[in-house]
Amino acid sequence: MSKSPTQQLRIIGGEWRSRRLRFPAVDGLRPTMDRVRETIFNWLQFDVAGARVLDAFAGSGALGIEALSRGAKDVVFLEKHPKAAIQLKDNLGTLNATHAQVWAGDALLWLQQNPQPFDLVFLDPPFGKNLLQPAIDALTLLPGALIYTEYETVLAPAWPANWQERKSKTTKEFCFRLFVVTD
Questions:
Q1: Phi first, then psi: what are they for 34, rounded to 5°?
Q2: Distance in Å from the first CA to the final CA of the chain
Q3: Which GO terms describe its molecular function (predicted)?
Q4: What is the mean pLDDT of residues 55-68?
Q5: What is the rounded CA–CA span in Å between residue 72 and residue 49?
Q6: Which residue among 6, 139, 141, 149 sits deepest, i.e. has the most Cβ atoms within 10 Å of its Cβ?
Q7: Is 116 helix (H, G, I), strand (E, B) or coil?
Q8: Dist. CA 81–CA 126, nearest whole Å
Q9: How far apart are CA 97 and CA 105, in angstroms?
Q10: Residue 156 has what pLDDT?
Q11: What is the per-residue pLDDT for 115?
Q12: pLDDT at 33
């Protein structure tokens, strides 16, 4: 029996800096690139330590694992694809990440059933599935919460009135933005 192909990601900074982790080659799974993660965590350098983090549509878990490596208090990973969720659990075990939990199922369903607030939310849904807007609409956030979004440039999400943009970058293929909840 042949193993399914795997790919690797590298943790950029923090406790597990330079560690490499495997993730399955699953259709639509695209970990946030190293240089983009570096930019994001430069933006968040004073906000991650001690934060409660939600990595919705986690995929490889690159963003949430990076947050754990940099001192996040705990991270909830939401991942629908079974192979990706299993590998994410294995990777967290390899890192001995005790302040993390993986929920293997539909992120939108989880958001609707768990209206708990987080300090930092990563929203990087699979492209072409129209999941960003429903996820934005399902979030429960308190003032001061930070939200990172990554999405195709062709989308024009309706951002909530109380989300103030802190930083943003756009490439030909995608946009990434950091917001803070104002009230």
A1: -50, -50
A2: 55
A3: 16S rRNA (guanine(966)-N(2))-methyltransferase activity
A4: 95
A5: 5
A6: 149
A7: coil
A8: 11
A9: 21
A10: 87
A11: 84
A12: 76
Residue with tokens 């950091």: 178
pLDDT digits (tens, 9 = 90+) for 16-50: 988 888 877 777 666 777 788 899 999 999 999 99
Q: Report which secondary-structure segment, H or E, holds 181.
A: strand 174-181
pLDDT value at residue 4: 53
Secondary structure (3-state) at 157? coil
| Joined tokens for residue 175 | 């946009």
Long-range contacts of 89-96 (CB under 8 A, 24+ apart): 91/21, 91/22, 91/23, 91/61, 91/65, 92/61, 92/65, 94/21, 95/16, 95/19, 95/21, 95/65, 95/68
* Ordered structural domains, the chain, with CATH: 6-181 (3.40.50.150)
Question: What is the full DSSP assignment across 24-77?
Answer: E--TT--PPPHHHHHHHHHHTTTTSTT-EEEEET-TT-HHHHHHHHTT-SEEEE
pLDDT confidence band for 155 (50 / 70 / 90)? confident
pTM of the model: 0.92
Residue 1 pLDDT: 41
Token pair recorded at residue 18: 């330079």
pLDDT recorded at residue 105 = 94
**Most distant pair of Cα atoms in the chain: their distance:** 55
Residues in the chain: 183
Nearest by Cα to 63 from 137, 118, 133: 118
Q: Burial level of 123, CB count in 10 A (0-12/13-18/19+)?
A: buried
